[in-house]
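User: quick one, fold this
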Amino acid sequence: FFIILSLVMMFVPALSFIGHSAHIGGLLAGYALARAWRREIPAPPVLARPAQKTMDEMAATLEVANLSDADFRREVKTLLNELGQGSWRPLSPRERALLRRAHLLV
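Assistant:
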């Protein structure tokens, strides 16, 4: 019904102004409602603060990067064996650097 009424208002010369105004008004109202709806969508929460390495972590990363492959493998193996025994504790910067180089920690 409203579609037919809208078309009649657009093509009948005496009602043309009303029909076009209604269409333009509908577009503007739709735009305003869409923007209001978009603003109400909640943003996802920030789950973690941005990672910033301390000087200790950067020094440990450099030290681990300079290890030979044999030393690196030996240290990673002992660390993984130690962690695999269930002795969970905070990792030291060196241990984090070892796991990062082994691609086991992001």
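User: anything notable?
Assistant: The chain has a mean pLDDT of 82.
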